[in-house]
Amino acid sequence: MKRWYALLTLVALPAGAAPLAVDLAKSEITFQSKQMGVPVDGRVRKFAMQLDFDAKKPEAGSVKIELDAASIDAGSEEANTELVKRGWMDAAKFPKATFVSSSVKTLSGGRYEVTGKMTIKGNTRDLSAPFTVKTQGNAQLFEGAFVLKRLDFKIGEGAWSDTETVADEVQIRFKVLAGPAPK
Amino acid sequence: MTRYTRVASALHWLIALAILANFVFGTWMVDLDLSPAKLRYYSYHKWLGVSVFLLVLVRIAWRLGHRPPALPAHMPGWERVAAGVSHVALYGLTLAVPLSGWLFSSAKGFKTVYFAVIPIPDLLAKNPPLADVLKLWHLSLNYVMALLVLLHVAAALKHHFMDRDDVLVRMWPFDRSGSGAKS
Questions:
Q1: A85, A182, B53, B105: least buried by Cβ within 10 Å?
Q2: Which of residues 23-82 of A touch B (CB under 8 A)?
Q3: Which ipTM score applies to this complex?
Q4: pTM for the predicted model, two decimal places
Q5: Contact A166 B39 (CB under 8 A)
Q6: What is d(CA A16, CA B12) in angstroms, rounded to the nearest whole number?
Q7: Residue-wise pLDDT tens digits, B150-172
Q8: Contact across the interface for B39 and A75, Cβ inside 8 Å
């Protein structure tokens, strides 16, 4: 049996390493927006992720994230009712937002940076996010944060594009726990 | 005639105007459809509420150091008791109404940031079911305060027009006699 698995690995390798097993229950994507100077916390309740990362070869890492637009909790019932509407996420027409990485590089101090294309509401922009990796048992914990400008993606159109009331900058944080690739 | 000090009188009328304005404004804004304007109005309402709270504290501190003029000699015992109780209740409510609004806002998940600059720490963490209860408290306390204010105004008018004493005049902001006022 062992040999058989080894053979399978050999066959699979050229097509790219197997992705890690992301533990969605212990992973989270949260954000903080600001309205009238008031920080408001929110989170993405539903997302899927394909992640591949080896600290020995960080630049070979990759990630693909699919976020469920209708699952975004913007901090209050009123905000959630508003957020799925056309002027905001237009979740009926654009049910998924995606991030597809193009490169991963090593920064100083044990930090890394992932760069890729973020697509929200049909608008695609290049984004980079620094992150750290910690080992937890045989799993790895990825943590990072970056600023997303909501107007780059037309999140909040018309009267809502006024940044005096709702700030353009949205602070996004992610925490992803991933175990080794399933054998 | 012994008047209230100019400071006591100025604080009384300033707070009265601010409370009246915020009561009408708050009652009006809650039924608006969600818009950036509504978010701004909510912030203005909270800032004015915090201002009322601070002004009432100043007023109480001033009053502790400056005894108000004595009640007219003709007042029977029950009127003196009623006046004492309703004034304590009014001071209490002018503090309790903004306090309940602040707690309601915290429970709803929105920190109060005074003038969009000074964050007021939350005493309560976000808790939507508790927010529903506090909303009811904020409303009820407002209506009790409104009833007491009506009683307060009615009593002042009774003193002026029926008893023909100086209870209203000594708090009146415009000193027509040009004498007898303490600064």
A1: A182
A2: 35-41, 75-78, 81-82
A3: 0.81
A4: 0.87
A5: yes
A6: 75
A7: 999 999 999 999 999 999 999 99
A8: no
